[in-house]
Write a structure and sequence with these properties.
By secondary structure, this protein is of the alpha/beta class. The protein has two domains: 2-153 and 295-303 and 309-314, Response regulator (Rossmann fold, 3-Layer(aba) Sandwich); 155-290 and 325-347, Rossmann fold (3-Layer(aba) Sandwich), CATH 3.40.50. The protein contains eleven helices and twelve strands. Helix 9 (271-274) links the parallel strand 9 and strand 10 (284-290). The longest helix is centred in the middle third of the chain and has 17 residues, at 184-200.
């Protein structure tokens, strides 16, 4: 029954997207099966979101901003498809395959979920094999294929900076970290945050909590209620600043900070500017910026210029791939110290742990 549902969903998406080509006869961006190089006039960009999709005010919205810039600045056709909570790996594979067989090239998968439990045989690996002439990119992934680019980030470096900020601003000597899912990627955020806080104030206490695990489909990235409960518990334990690396669940953390009259740190996007409820702005001290928007835009621009590099491309402090936000002015008084820490990392003087 599950397989029938997946096939039915894929069929509906195929009709919506228009005429198809068989995956075994995958067309390149020239549209005629030739090996002509890509150009801006015939590039069609497909993007598959992670859970939360547009409107999460965080990770997915950063990717969406990059796609919107692709459409406006490069003047190319774009198509994005949403994910569904609780979906299978086969659903994710079908979404990517719908895009590539509909003539979208390149195709971008947003989030490590498209690697699946086994990146060598996961949703993206299967789609890349079925559509060898399509170029793919995955944000936060590690799929190894000749037609896949891995867009990865030094999240630990940006998290180190907001850890420094938290330690400098904390009045209680206790701060908190909330992760959306207990996976290695999010543990990088925790490791960097803790390292930055400890380097600034050795005796600071860092509370940690993860909202979900892979066993429950990492639902903690889209669970504002769970985020609020976890953050409230940390504030009750004495934390006066909580860093949420939890996607859409961060809204709940901000709500808890508002209720407790304390502070929080956002992630991925400048959440001071993206949060829908203006009353939450005062509690957002800063955000760790992860420039997924730049990664998406630059990948497509390079593709349109007939440039493609398989394997990992790392976006770090040196390339402004990560950083911290100053919106709201709450870190203006410590900006010099944050920039000094940034320079130490960029120069190699400080190496930030990932575990």
């Amino acid at each position: 029954m599950r397989g029938m549902k997946v096939l039915a969903a894929a069929a509906v998406a195929f009709v919506a997207l228009g005429s198809m080509t068989a995956c075994g006869d995958d067309k390149d961006s020239a549209g005629d099966g030739s090996s002509a190089p890509a150009s801006k006039k015939n590039v069609k960009v497909g993007l598959a979101f992670d859970i939360g999709g547009r409107g999460d005010k965080s990770f997915n919205d950063s990717a969406a901003a990059g796609l919107d810039r692709v459409k406006s600045d490069l003047n190319v056709d774009v198509k994005d498809l949403a994910a569904v909570a609780g979906e299978s790996e086969n659903d994710k594979y079908s979404r990517l395959k719908v895009l590539c067989t509909s003539g979208y090239n390149p195709v971008i998968a947003v989030g490590f979920v498209y690697d699946g439990a086994d990146a060598a045989n996961g949703p993206l690996a299967r789609a890349a094999k079925d559509c060898p002439k399509t170029k793919f990119a995955i944000v936060d992934g590690a799929t190894k294929a000749d037609n896949v680019a891995d867009l990865v980030f030094a999240e630990e470096q940006g998290s180190y900076l907001v850890g420094v900020a938290a330690a400098l601003k904390s009045k209680t000597g206790t701060v908190g970290f909330i992760g959306g899912c207990q996976v290695d990627l999010i543990k990088k955020f925790e490791a960097g945050f803790t390292a930055g806080a400890k380097a600034t104030k050795a005796d600071i206490k860092v509370l940690t909590n993860y909202l979900s695990t892979p066993a429950d489909a990492c639902k903690g990235f889209n669970d504002p209620a769970g985020g609020k409960t976890a953050a409230s518990g940390m504030y009750d334990q004495g934390a006066d600043i909580v860093y949420a690396a939890a996607g859409g669940s961060g809204t709940g953390v901000f709500e808890a900070a508002k209720d407790k009259k304390t502070l929080a740190i956002g992630v991925d996007s400048d959440q001071y500017n993206t949060v829908t409820d203006a009353s939450l702005k005062p509690v957002i001290m800063t955000s760790m910026l992860k420039r997924v928007d730049n990664a998406v835009f630059n990948f497509v621009k390079d593709f349109a210029d007939d440039k493609f590099t398989a394997g990992p491309t790392v976006f770090d402090l040196k390339t402004d791939g990560v950083g911290y936000a100053t919106s709201g002015g709450q870190v203006d008084d410590i900006k010099a110290k944050l920039d000094a820490a940034k320079a130490d990392i960029a120069s190699g003087k400080v190496t930030v742990p990932t575990k």
